[in-house]
Amino acid sequence: DGGITQSPKYLFRKEGQNVTLSCEQNLNHDAMYWYRQDPGQGLRLIYYSQIVNDFQKGDIAEGYSVSREKKESFPLTVTSAQKNPTAFYLCASSIKGRGANVLTFGAGSRLTVL
Amino acid sequence: AQSVTQLDSQVPVFEEAPVELRCNYSSSVSVYLFWYVQYPNQGLQLLLKYLSGSTLVKGINGFEAEFNKSQTSFHLRKPSVHISDTAEYFCATMNSGYSTLTFGKGTMLLVSP
Fold it and tell me: Which residues of chain A have pLDDT under 70?
C-alpha cells in the first residue's frame, strides 16, 4: 500500500543535541512538507519541497533544516538552535500545483526534549 | 495572506445529536477550503474540500460543509454524531500560489454517550 512512513514514532533528546526525523513516501508525489503541531496552535509549516534538491522555508523554519536528495525522502533535522523543540511533527506529501490541496499525512513523530 | 479562524477550541456533544464546527476564512482572492480530521496520535486525513461549484460539499463519514461567501464561512456539520467521531478537526485554506495549506488551530469534538 502507498503511504508515508515517519520514524521514529517517539524520540527523546537531551538539550543541545541535534535530532533527525525521517519521512519516506512511496506515492510518487513531487511535493513534501513538514508541519509542527502544538496543543491549541494547530499545524504550522516548517519547510516544504516541490522538487528534488529544492526546498522553501515555511512560517517557523528557524532552528530546523531539511534536505531533499531523493523524491521519496524528506528528512527534518531539529537543531540545538530550536528553542522549544518538544512537539508533534507531521510529514505530508502531495502532487504539485493546484492538486497540492490534498495532503497525505504520515502518522507523526513525537519529540520530547528532556 | 489567506487565513482561517476556528471559533471553538472544543465542542462537547452527546451521541446522536447534531453538531456544527465553525470556520471563517479571510481572503481577497479565489478561495479553496478544506476540512481535515485527526484521530488521537495519528496524522490528518481529508474530510472534504471546496474548490468551486456547488456551495454544499459532502465528505466522508456523513460530514458536510457549506461555503458561504457573504459570511466568509465554511462550517462543518453532521446531523447525528457517533462516539467514533471524537477527534480534532482542522479547517484549512490554500495559499494564493497553490503550493501550501494554512491550517486553523483546530476544534476538538468530544462525543459522549
Answer: 1, 97-101
| Chain B residues 32-91 within an 8 A CB cutoff of chain A | 32, 34, 36, 41-46, 49, 51, 90
- pLDDT number for residue A114: 85
Q: What are phi and psi of A98, to 5 degrees?
A: -65, -20
Q: How far is A40 from chain B (nearest CA, A)?
A: 6
pLDDT for res A65: 97
Q: Which amino acid is at B75?
A: H
Kindly provide the residue ranges of all beta strands, DSSP E only, lying in A1-114, ordered along the sequence. 4-7, 10-13, 19-25, 31-38, 42-51, 54-57, 64-66, 76-78, 87-94, 104-105, 109-113
β-sheet bridge partners, residue A38: A42
Give the other-Cβ count within 10 Å of A114's Cβ.
8
Distance CA B58, CA B50 (A): 9
What pLDDT score does A99 carry? 63
